[in-house]
Amino acid sequence: MSNPDKTTKPSRRAFLAGAGVAGAGLATGAFAQDSAITVQPWMQELGDGVDAAPYGMPSPYEKDVKRRTVEWLTADNASSINFTPLHNLDGIITPNGLCFERHHSGVARVDPAEHRLMIHGLVDKPLVFTMDDLKRFPRSNHVYFLECAANSGMEWRGSQLNGVQFTHGMIHNVMYTGIPLRLLLEQAGVKPSGKWILAEGADAAAMTRSIPMEKALDDCLVAFAMNGEALRAEQGYPLRLVVPGWEGNMWIKWLRRLEIGDEPWHHREETSKYTDLLADGTARRFTWEMDAKSVITSPSPQAPITHGPGRTVINGVAWSGRGTIPRVDVTVDGGMNWHEARMDGPSLDKSMHRFYFEFDWDGKPLLLQSRAHDSTGYVQPTKEALRKLRGLNSIYHNNGIQTWSVDADGRAENVEIS
């Protein structure tokens, strides 16, 4: 005899499927024509079990969300760049696997058991730390942006690359876990004449940068984790220097040595490179801080408007190496009218800030721009204002206002307007 429950009580799946079909039959317009509201294959079969991906991966439908490079930028990808897909992200935290890379000799593959951090020079007691030693110090967690000084550098002479990933993607924003550098320096005992630190990496390029002692004692970290897990190899595993608000080249990866001295060393990366050459041939010296900057990430060339006229959300990010971003302005008409954007999410020192502006698009062409205000009162300038001050020789520290032109079909393009 059959079980009456199986024949008289519909299953939850059958009920939902029936309701979907009935609803579609009663609806009108686009809703009635949308076949996706019916039962789909994934609703009728078991999915993968809990161990199918021991280290979780994004959905395969998000396979296009990835770092990208521009092959013609450098002669060899061991000394090159790839870019964070800003147009695909929201909030303020960059996933570890999407943080842009900049290498001068490729990714160093460092065995943490054999890695050491040395502090020497003008100190009372030279020290060598193992990774185990370092993890016995008090640790701190902070969210900071890291921006390459050359971010947007290819735009100095005019619009070049058609995508926010390529114009502004040499940046990421993560939570770093590490040891305040001042605690390690206290252990070594810096002599009164010790005014500078030379940080050196363990990569084949032996990257070095001079850092003033005031900054080192203020907010620098020796970090071993980002976003809750160990640093990725391309981000300096097992140890990197964090220099909040200052250009990314100073955040030495694979950190192996800190030498204390009485003056800056003037190595390659602070003389022939990473200095801002002015129109008269002189260079701006020690331009470490990253000025306030913002960019609209959507709509943008890689994220066009696809829904047609109507309610539209402008999405973007802003940051400053000198503090927070209390305000961002947005214009849809190339600067004739500015509107205060809606800031949302955490407002943290030297971190990315997320802004939105919602409006009803009438389907006419747009000229989109954003303008950041930081907590010091500084306002993001136009590109033309920067060029008047610095000329066209530099590729560093371009924080000028970016313009996207959106046509009636919602397609966006990198342009400049006067």
From TrEMBL:
Obligatory cofactor(s): Mo-molybdopterin
Domain (Moybdenum cofactor oxidoreductase dimerisation): residue spans on this chain: 285-402
Any GO BP: sulfur compound metabolic process
Domain Oxidoreductase molybdopterin-binding: 104-265
Alphabetical list of SUPFAM superfamilies matching this protein: E set domains (SSF81296), Oxidoreductase molybdopterin-binding domain (SSF56524)
Keyword Cell cycle: no
Region forming the signal peptide: 1-32
Classification via PROSITE patterns: TAT
UniProt-recorded Gene Ontology molecular function terms: heme binding; molybdenum ion binding; molybdopterin cofactor binding; sulfite oxidase activity
Highest taxon in the source lineage: Bacteria
NCBIfam families, sorted: sulfite_DH_soxC, TAT_signal_seq
PANTHER family associated with the record: SULFITE OXIDASE, MITOCHONDRIAL, SULFITE REDUCTASE
Protein's name in the database: Sulfur dehydrogenase subunit SoxC
